[in-house]
Specification:
95 residues; mainly alpha
């Protein structure tokens, strides 16, 4: 009787371990896991690049805000003609 009980417990335990191993470590789950890890690494790289771009833009904005000569150069660059074919539109403002 005790032997049958131990055998049943062993079979239940072994089948639970086997099924758990099968569902976690089968080929499709491992491939999905690898694909997800690759996606996570790509996202981390993208976040780092965006953070570097953010720092550069903040630096340019602070230079623009604090330096009037730099502001004047940027405004001239953005507003006025770069090529002879470019045109400038002037607006009249109502005060």
């Amino acid at each position: 009787m005790i032997l049958k009980s131990k055998l049943k417990i062993f079979i239940i335990f072994f089948s639970t371990i086997f099924l758990t191993y099968y569902f976690i470590f089968n080929e499709t789950n491992i491939l999905v896991l690898i694909k997800n890890l690759d996606l996570i690494n790509e996202k981390k790289i993208k976040i780092l690049n965006l953070n570097h771009e953010k720092v550069d833009l903040e630096k340019k904005f602070n230079e623009f805000k604090n330096n009037s000569d730099y502001r004047e150069l940027i405004v001239k660059e953005k507003l006025y003609m770069k090529n002879k074919s470019d045109g400038v539109i002037f607006y009249e403002l109502d005060n």
